[in-house]
Each structure stands twice: as structure tokens, then as C-alpha cells.
Amino acid sequence: MKISTNALFDRATQQMGTVQTTLAKSQAQLAAGKQVITPSDAPTQAASIQRLRSIMARQDSYADTLAAVKTRLEDEESALQGVSNMVVRIKEIAIQSVSDTLGPADRKVLAVEMQGLRDQILSMANAQDSSGNYLFAGSRVDQPAFAENGFGDVTYQGDQTRMRVSVGDQRTVQLNRSGSEAFVRVVRTDAKGVSTGVGFFPGAGPAHRRRAGLQPHGHAARHWRNGRPAKRPDPGPGPGRHRHERGRRPDSRA
After folding, report:
1. What is the mean pLDDT of the chain?
2. Structure confidence by residue, pLDDT tens digits, 136-150
3. Are 151 and 206 in contact (CB under 8 A)?
4. Which of 15, 25, 111, 197 would disulfide-bridge 185, Cβ 3.0–4.6 Å?
5. Helix (H/G/I), strand (E/B), else coil: 221
6. How many other C-beta atoms can be found within 10 angstroms of the C-beta atom of residue 220?
7. Each residue's pLDDT tens digit, 197-243
8. How far, in Å, CA of 34 to CA of 28, rounded?
9. Which domains does the chain have, with CATH numbers?
């Protein structure tokens, strides 16, 4: 069988095209650093690669969540450590204040320092994270965990929600700690064996400040003068009483 010159030329051209295609694919693989560039190169391997990419993306998301949880817990730890240091100082002041060598002026100085420490603890109880969320308010992160009224009474206005986040396919961790859990009430037992719950922020009301020689602040200052309760003015008979007296019928016997 005689092969024509045109057939030989076409076959050589086809082989050269195949070689060029293979060379271009190899160069693309080298440039990208990947063996499979398009799914058509290796459908089975491409499916495995896509599945692995999905797993890696999910793991990266878990890693970011863990980093955020770590930062928040570090903020909580920092605030609680500061509170712990101040509580130790308050204990030292309490022990120092019972000394017979201290006079009223000395105890007043200690009371001022203790009041300042208590205010700093309240400020730390309302600490915020880098996003402006209150750490100890439960799920109510947009408002302070503790609020103080004009009489020095502190109330917890957060909730008891414990938020958990996923850090693995089948694993979650707690994200927050409520204020009532971090700043728990203290149970004290008196000499008669009666147990009483005392809040974490006691001793800020007008009576306590008066015993310490301090002036009340806020709305409470309106009702105290010279360390004593101010007598409120008599509002007089109310409108209802006035109308009642005006409309009262005279005694028929008169």
C-alpha cells in the first residue's frame, strides 16, 4: 500500500498539535503549581479537591470563631482579674478600719477609698469588648449589665442567656458569662444562724454614705441635708380631698 505525501504531512501535523497541547498543559500546571487546573482534566480528582476545599473552608471558619471566643474570654478574664485585685484591697481596708488607732477622720479617708474601689468594680462589671458589646449582660449586649440609680442601688439588667458557638462539626463552647454568674450574691450568716443574701455591690446607699461621713449623690442628695433626712414639704390636701370637702353636705342636725 502506497502512502501519499499528503497523508504523511497531515499525520505529522496532528502529532505536532498533540505535543503542543500536552506541552501547554504541562506549562500551565507548572505555572499554577497544580496538577488539576480544570475539572475536565481529572473529574474524579476534581470532585475530591472540591470536597477538601469545602472542609478546609469550614475549618477556617471554626478557627476564626475560636479566635473571637479567645479574645472575648481574655477580656472577661482581664476584667475579673481587676475586680479580684480590688476586692483584695477592699478586704485590706476593712481589716485596717477596725483598728482602735484610727480616728473618725482616718476612717473617712478609708471610706472614700473604698467607695472609689466599689465604683471602679462597677465600671469593670460593665466592661465592653472590641465591638462595643457588654461582656456580662448575657444576650442583651447593647445595654450595660448593671445600672445604678440615684440612691446607689445597683441592679442587674442583663439576662441569664448562655450563648454557645460551634467550633467543630460536633463541638460547641460557651461564649459568655452572665453578670449574675460572675458577680454572685454573697450569703452571710449572723450570730443567730440566720443566712442573708447580700448583693455584690452593697453599701452605696445614703445611709451607708452618711455613716461613712460622705454626702449622698444623685437623686438621693435631694432628700438629705447635713447628713440627715430632709423634711419634705407638705403637699397639702390633694385635689380629690379638696373636691370631697367642697362637695360634703352639711350635717342636717346642725
Report:
1. 76
2. 999 999 999 999 888
3. yes
4. 197
5. helix
6. 19
7. 777 776 444 444 444 444 444 444 444 444 444 444 454 544 444 44
8. 8
9. 53-220 (1.20.1330.10)
Burial (CB count within 10 angstroms: exposed 0-12, middle 13-18, buried 19+), residue 157: middle
pLDDT digits (tens, 9 = 90+) for 51-84: 888 999 999 999 999 999 999 999 999 999 999 9
Cell numbers at 120, concatenated = 471602679
- Write the burial class of residue 38 (CB in 10 Å: 0-12 exposed, 13-18 middle, 19+ buried): exposed
Is residue 161 within 8 A of residue 174, CB to CB? The reply is no
How many CB atoms are located within 10 Å of the residue 174 CB? 11
User: Greater confidence, 226 or 135?
Assistant: 135
C-alpha 189/C-alpha 224 separation (Å) is 32
Phi, psi of 250 (to 5 degrees): -65, 150
Number of H helices, E strands in the chain: 6, 8
Q: Which of 160, 97, 158 is nearest to 127 (CA)?
A: 158
Q: Which residue has the cell 475536565?
A: 40
| Distance, CA of 16 to CA of 173 (rounded, Å) | 61
Determine the 3-state secondary structure of 186 from DSSP. strand
Give the type of residue at 177.
R
* Total residue length of the chain: 254
Does residue 157 contact residue 168 with C-beta atoms inside 8 Å? Answer: no
User: Is the distance from CB of 83 to CB of 145 less than 8 angstroms?
Assistant: no
pTM of the complete model: 0.61
